[in-house]
Specification:
Radius of gyration: 21 Å
Strand content: 15-25%
Largest sheet: 5 strands, parallel
Number of helices: 10
Bound molecules: xanthosine-5'-monophosphate
Strand order of the largest sheet: 3-2-1-4-5
Order of helices and strands: HEHEHEHHEHEHHHEEEEEHE
Helix content: 25-40%
Distance between the termini: 37 Å
Length: 326
């Protein structure tokens, strides 16, 4: 897997036939490189790591060891989907670690966004390393590095969170999609048979819902955020907006206001809807969401989610607002 520069002659992968050809070439390369040794992969369930996992499963089957760390900040159903697709359907060698308590205990009472990020990133490395050390005979580390990561950084995926494997492990890197752009990774993922919900997933920050549960994270507010976000995604899906809006999610600030429910005073948090369109996430515009849909989402979230008593729609483009609230 030599070379970090995409040759100018390299054809853009836009069709299933081109994806199949790419897959065949990479399968042969990986087999030649890995032989009968073992490869470790941190499988987040995002597009890039999922496509790398599926490609490597095709190439080397159970010689690939996938580790999925659930940091407790995943969206509703995400870890379950990773298990369903990779363990049940693709018969992967998958280690699932539910580290929710470890992460949430460390994050308790921490309100500063940068400190929250550091704790989540640091804990991720620790959990992953603990797992890696338990495994025998791993020779390679697979990564879902893609071409923009190489163009934008020094080739190490900044938000990958897996930055510090134990020194004594000395693993060689396997990065089969490192010369591909995101749209090509998606075509390859589809050709490998991954489900659309995984291949066309919207971007999701490494620290997950941790950047959307604003201030110090509590389990009840995180739960409310996850449920409200699931309703938003379901309603956008039903309204045919899922492929039209680049990123949409809920943020829940650490603020309560007074409301009324069942004729009684009801204090709750607001759920803030963010729905933006962009090409590069450097700037973003606000999607025009039909009012009828906003009313429906509001009714469902306030009716179904404990702790939420208002729904707000953020109309701020980037700049001035960033996409995440953090
Ligand atoms: P902002 O909030 O800076 O976000 O306008 C721009 C885009 O980046 C995403 N984002 C992240 N993605 N790891 C990621 O992979 C991260 O730590 C991270 N933080 C923000 C954000 O969701 C938006 O799409």
């Amino acid at each position: 897997m030599s070379g970090n520069v995409r040759p100018e002659t390299m054809e853009r992968i836009t069709t299933k036939a081109l994806a199949d050809k790419f897959i065949e070439e990479q399968v042969a390369k990986v087999r030649a490189m890995v032989g009968d040794r073992k490869v470790l992969l941190a499988l987040s369930g995002g597009v890039d790591s999922s496509v790398v996992a599926a490609l490597l499963i095709k190439a080397i089957g159970k010689q690939l060891v996938c580790v999925h760390v659930n940091h407790g900040l995943m969206r509703k159903g995400e870890s379950e989907q990773v298990i369903e697709v990779f363990k049940n359907r693709l018969d992967a060698n998958l280690i699932y670690i539910d580290a929710t308590d470890r992460f949430l205990d460390k994050l308790a009472n921490v309100a500063d966004p940068e400190r929250k990020r550091k704790i989540i990133g640091g804990e991720f490395i620790e959990v992953f390393n603990e797992e890696a050390k338990k495994l025998d005979g791993i020779s390679f580390l697979a990564q879902g590095t893609i071409y923009p990561d190489i163009l934008e950084s020094d080739g190490v995926k900044a938000h990958h969170n897996v930055g510090g494997l134990p020194e004594d492990m000395k693993l060689e890197l396997v990065e089969p999609v490192k010369l591909l752009f995101k749209d090509e990774v998606r075509v390859v993922g589809s050709a490998l048979g991954l489900p659309d919900e995984m291949v066309y997933r919207q971007p999701f920050p490494g620290p997950g819902l941790g950047v959307r549960c604003l201030g110090a994270i509590t389990r009840d507010r995180l739960h409310a955020l996850r449920e409200a976000d699931a309703i938003l995604r379901e309603e956008f899906d039903n309204a045919g907006l899922a492929g039209k809006v680049w990123q949409y999610f809920i943020a829940v600030p650490d603020v309560k206001s007074v409301g009324v429910k069942d004729c009684k005073r009801y204090e709750g948090w607001p759920a803030i809807i963010r729905a933006v369109n962009t090409t590069d996430a450097m700037s973003a515009t606000i999607e025009e969401i039909p009012y009828s849909l906003l009313h429906k989402i509001t009714d469902r979230i306030t009716g179904e989610v404990d702790g939420i008593n208002r729904v707000l729609y953020d109309l701020t483009p980037k700049p001035v607002g960033t996409i995440e609230w953090e």
